[in-house]
Design a protein that fits this description.
Elements (H helix, E strand, L loop, with lengths): L30 E3 L3 E2 L2 H11 L4 H4 L15 H15 L5 E11 L8 E13 L6 E10 L5 E11 L4
Length: 162
């Protein structure tokens, strides 16, 4: 004997869990902080393997030409981990395009460091098309010692309410 299961179909008017902000929900000066994440040796190995960044400083333990102690992490890995947080929490389903990016790497990040970021919306310019807007944000990335390791400005196209 089988039990009959009934359920209400998915109601498309229900709020979607994890849905990002539409541009109308943001304001210049609004600030957010991301989750924190500790960068592991596995993160480094996977990243350099998939990107082909097989530079000696990243693949050779104790590389004698290194300018610092520890296992340095490419700035691109730090950036992409923070962007992952932003995509998952702030613009999931509403981010339409990255239009421009200006980045400065200010301090080294090594395996074992824990990073997080502060995102500040700095400008919102509605477009003439389909309720979209160009949203600019400044993202400051910090390590576990509150050292600013990276800052970047991202200009994105975000969806709006119809």
């Amino acid at each position: 004997m089988t039990a009959e299961h009934t359920a209400t179909p998915v109601d498309s008017s229900l709020p979607r869990l994890g849905q990002g902000f539409v541009w109308q929900d943001l304001a210049a000066g609004q600030r957010f902080r991301t989750f924190r994440r500790t960068i592991t040796e596995t993160d480094l190995v996977n990243f350099i393997g998939v990107t082909g960044m097989l530079e000696a400083i990243f693949i050779e333990e104790g590389y004698e030409g290194a300018a610092m102690a520890g296992r340095p992490v490419p700035g691109a890995l730090t950036y992409t981990l923070i962007e992952g947080f932003i995509l998952q929490t702030m613009i999931q389903g509403t981010g339409l395009a990255m239009l421009e990016l200006h980045q400065k790497i200010l301090a080294p990040v090594v395996v074992g460091d824990t990073i997080e970021a502060v995102v500040e919306v700095t400008d919102i310019r509605p477009t003439s098309r389909s309720g979209r807007a160009v949203v600019t944000s400044r993202i400051d990335v910090f390590n576990q010692r509150s050292v600013l390791v990276m800052t970047y400005t991202a200009t994105r196209l975000l969806a709006g309410r119809a």
